[in-house]
Queue: 2 jobs
Job 1
Amino acid sequence: MINAINKSGPFTHGASNVQKTMYTVLLALLPATAFNAYLFGWPALLLFVVTVGACVVIEAGCLILADQPMKAAFDGSAVLTGWLLAMSLPPWAPWWIGALGAVFAIALAKHTFGGLGQNMFNPAMVARVALLVSFPVVMTAWVLPHPLFSASAPGLGDALAITFGGQMPDSVSAASALGYVKTELSRGIPVTQSMAHVPDLMDMALGFRAGSMGETSAILILAGGLFLMARRIISWHTPLGVMGGLFLMGTLFHAIDPARYTDGMFHVMSGATFLGAFFIATDYVTSPVSKKGQLVFGAGVGVLTWVIRTYAGYPEGMAFAILLMNSLTPIIDQYTRPRAFGRTLKGEPLPLAGRDK
Amino acid sequence: MKLFPIRGGIHPDYRKEQSSERAIVALPLPALLYIPLQQHIGAPAEVLVSEGQAVKKGQMIARSTGAISAPQHAPTSGTVKAVTEIPAPHPSGLAQTTIVIEPDGRDEWAELPAAIADPFSADPQTIAERVAQSGIVGMGGAAFPSAVKLNLGSRFKLDTLLLNGAECEPYLTCDDRVMREHAGEIVDGARIMAHALGVPRVVIAIEDNKPQAIAAMTEAARAFAEIVVAGVPVQYPMGSERHLVQAITGRETPAKKLTADIGVVVHNVATARAVHHAVRFGRPLVARVVTVSGGAVREANNIEAPIGARVADLIAFCGGFASEPASLVNGGPMMGQPLPGLDVPVIKGMSGILALTAGETNTQPASPCIRCGTCVSICPCGLVPVEMAAFIRKDNFEAAARLGVMDCVSCGSCSWVCPSHIPLVHYFNYAKGMINAQERDRRKNEQTKVLAEAHTLRVEKAAEARRAMMAAKKAQAAAKTEEKANA
């Protein structure tokens, strides 16, 4: 009669679904994004809209090509990728940076691997790194905050010229703190001196400094991250791993040679540490599934970020570190499986300690 | 009482309030009762009656066959209308041999075996035998013949009888009601079982969301120092045998072993009540309490129904459907089985009949896995559902087995929690079936090989014997010729 029996139980389901999860993450990003839109004004908003829009359009195009249901374009995953990508770009970058980034992220990094859930590497970070390597000048043209409605802020007309006309005003460019320290170091000026010229930690936490939209305002990013933890979308393992790894490496080497190495707290507060730790390294698809694995993964991201920031050619290493650790995810998964009930870690049945009669 | 944590688990909407305040009511005798020969794990029973024969309530109508089996008894007095094949309450909907009884309305008891006067001085074997003869099987849902589990004392060093009153499945309230209304009978049954097992301690574990049941059981057990009533945290699947043992004793049952191996035997509370009836009054198991609930049923109830009443009779008793159910379930919504229809009978292991609306089942088409890892965090067995499912999708059962799919208890937590609505348990059940089939094939092949080898050996031996005989004959003939020549 009524029952078409085609499936085992359970015959009830929790309230969670993919769309809800994605939109909760977007909600968590909203305060930081809004604040940064305020800080960097109309150009940042325009770039944000272009990047997110391009991601959704390309997602839809890929779904058509792959003959998959169009519903997936609105599950929030493409919006999230675009959103994170926009937050990792220089806020006054031209529109084609965002559009090209969307092609890298959605078409190449995500859909060539099979779409949602199949990609090996974080799409937003693939796009960011591809752009950074291809267009190093545009991708490092940072500006200081020009809060909306302040005297120095560009109006909508100026903003259109900046984003779509490629008319970046020369005078406003500024170096990020990480970049500044690195440049000074290469000129032979020790960290102890250059640190006097970077914004103090409080300003960095609040966001009044040069950087991408996601790099500034650590506090609002942190608030978003804590919200996601409270909603059980992410757990503390990955963020703690990232921050812990970065802080420990920074502190340890700073103690050894303060003139050469910046301290741990500076590392944690600068660059994309918070965004990376709470929103990018925690990406479900490209990070390990077990909590133990997430801790290992996070620590790897933290340590590699420190290594790249300290020794490599780029001032910021978060994106590279995350991509490198993405490649290790399957191996980490394999070695961090939980212990099964009634079995040892190796999978053998637990011994029976002389209970036989 | 000190409790121990168990891994993972979920907190589904329990929805027990639909039926928890409904006192147990007896189902009026339906027009016909259908008693399948197999209501338990093990060998089906063997029919003892024939068409047209008059039977009385409690009379054995089918006897157990083999070590793991259970007899069936007439749930009321009446006439055997037929012994025929009808669909069983099994997802396959396949028919099985069923005794159909037409009640005569008198509900007259047969001559029952005498009550065991003092069960606590009786031989454990006597009690186990009585339980076996009374057709008692595990009433929590697994329906394993209880007598087999009462005999474990002779094989294992046991210290605890754990009575499972956790009832962690959403909707179900039959155990809750039985504990509230018949606490004394359960406690007496538990003491008898403890005596049969030779254990000094009884723990009755009840989830904390049943405070009235805890109070009633505590009150009933007050006089007996060996019985402890323990409230356990509300955490699905707390009622899973191995997990409950771990929560109560801290002992983890090794893979491929029984809880008896670590000194604990677990029985359901309703089973203890059935043991009380069998031992104290000689009454076999002919009825059980079933929770009828779900949003699609007009009025939820806890019904004491004779074994063999059709599901349709119980639904009708509850006023029928309020809306077309999206899903009909035998048991709880987490681990229950789909019901193939309304014409199947109530059997001994049926704890619930659920008619669920689409809103309650919340079934959605599966979307791609986003590797969120929630299934890994909540798996109470410490498995990796996401990886196992990926292998099973590729029919790689060997890899799934290596990851422990055979250790899965099918509790359904992973399917319930999956944001992509992937039917993980369905995959695992499929894999378990395939792996079991492969294992059977392998054993069969091995057996064939052994037989074939034995055959070859036999043929060779016969040929050898023939050759030897021929040689002997030849030698004899030669000897004779020689004799002749000599003569």
Job 2
Amino acid sequence: MKKALIIGLLLGVGLPTGLAADKSVISAIEKSGGLVLPWPGEQDAWEVEFHLRGRDLEDDGLSAVAALKTVVALNLRDTKITSEGLKHLKGLSKLKRLHLERTAVDDAGVSHLTGLENLEYLNLYGTKITDKALDQLSSLKNLRQLYVWQTEVTDDGVAKINKALPNLKIVKGVDLSKIVIVKKEEPKPEENLKWLAFGGPEKPPAKSKPGSFLIITFQNKSNQDVKLYWVDYGGGKKLYGEISKGAERKQNTYSDAVWLVTDNKDKPLGYFVAGTKTALAVIPK
Amino acid sequence: MLSLNHSRRDFLRTSVGLAGLTLPTYFKATASTTAPQRKAKSCIIVYTWGGMSHYESFDPKPEAPAEIRGEFKHIKTATPGIHFCEHLPMLAKHSDKLAIVRSVHHKHGGHGSAMYVNMTGHNPVGAKPKSTKNWPSLASMMSYFHNPAAGTPRAIRMPYSMFDNGGQQSGEHGGWLGSQYDPILVRTPAGEPWRGVNRYTDRELNLKLNLDKSRIADRRTLLTQLDNARSEETAYEQLDHYSRMAADMLLGSPVRDAYDLEKEDPKIRNMYGDHMGGQSLLLARRLVEAGVPVVQTLLSASDLAGGSGDNWDTHRNHFPKMKDRLLPVFDRSVSALLTDLEMRGMLEETLVVFLTDFGRTPKVNGNGGRDHYPNVYSLAYAGGGIQGGQVYGASNKKGTEPAAGACSPADIHATAFRAMGIDPRTELHDQLDRPFQLCDGNPLPLF
């Protein structure tokens, strides 16, 4: 195919060279970390993405994109581009979707977009734009979706552009400053679990049974560091942790679970069996 | 009152709540074959294990007799004419983003078979979970059509596999596509755990973030050498799939950062709720954002354990369990996900599919519970180019069978494939090169 093309060029035949031109343009974009995908349903229409593997893209790199005139969708999320770089996009007259979220773009950058008449989707969340940017975008009659969460855009600004572009859907998102983080109080122990000393008269069940969720606080009041094992549903031992002398450990568990306490040489000291309530388990001296 | 000249959406609007009407042929005839203009880039599958009651979620029956209607009331949503259960107050505000399907049905009364048919769109074959005789899961099939960069898994599932009384269930793996198409299991690293029995027996990706990178790189070199030497051993290849993925991810991919929930804004984390359910959906969003094409999230404890614990198999104490444990987590976490996807401008490129085993029986039983009911149940979609604010199909007045738009899990799959730009009739080949048609359902006209 390459050969045919070269021969064709030599003969001066009017070959459809668009494809060949695009190939070098596409490889230039790919070199700067971009992914070029055919846009579904249209001939010679492209989607270009930098947001996953091309995040090191800087302003200069956008000139490679500008060379591919038939870009329909461009994703620059999380890249290092600035407002200055957007001047390269001026000639992309087919552009319908543009992702600029989480970049350093501000109002000055948006001024480069006012000629993109076919733009339908513009994502500016997490940028430095203000209401001034929205004023500039009011000329884009085909704009249908605009994302301005986490910007300086105000409700007044949104109302204003909505008047100019009644079909535009503007997503301003939730106001995070109004979200109050509520810390849940941890449940307090409601009972003390009985210590079943190893070799003592009272024996624990041989294995745990599935039950409902609860928390046990193990307090090591013995005069040595101990290890904590869960006796699983098959009777096997599973190490959950070590509790130093005098320390305590909050342990998620289930009702009817059997817990084995050993010294740090795995010599069994005793057991606890979880009840149905949040509990305290004191490892005695 | 019905004529084929009605626009499809008009018909759907008027059919909401319409009783005694069975028009499956109508829907088959009009199931539009026009593809959406754009395809969704990624999919989040949300599975409520055990069988979510249609009465106490997306299809309340306020006019049914008390023994069927149950204890809960219904509430208005943001969409006129659509009502949800009163314990989904946050989600009700997002009905404009949801397409509810109220007329799904199948013939499988047991959890394992029902999960299999919902997950794969095909009838179970009775093989073990990891058998290549099984049909691949929806996540696995969708992921087949994606080939993300090194270090980005095709599909991830979390936080654990589905079990019933200790037995792992079939339907979550790569099946005849091969284990390299098994969605990769990861734990959700935060949130109050689901109460009940949670099992971690599957091989899962170890995403401990503090491993020494040079050691991993060494191991990977070793692995490559071993790989060359022993490439024909199937068991080894399986191991290799995980190990290489783990190494790639740990060596600095966006996926590794996505997995670290500590890097998320605490207020966003709070919006999803301090529960593993919410944190799982938050993680799903972060993974999709990092380029993972398919993420499957289990919103339930792992083992049904005879109906004890936080799963949707509510044979006993159905109402308190739904109200106190299950619906609040579902309501908050799903609402947060939809809010989050929307304000980041990701919703139309992200298909969210809600699946469950089946619905629950109309009559409340003697233990205050509802039992298994595959005759009719509700599922839902959001995003991915599917129009929100609509209900497809209807169950009858008592919620006992489809009254309009009866459809199957295979149709639910076909719709999801369509949204992802995948032709449901695509022929795939297993490892012995035998042909399989991806899906024999028909896409529902939801676009």
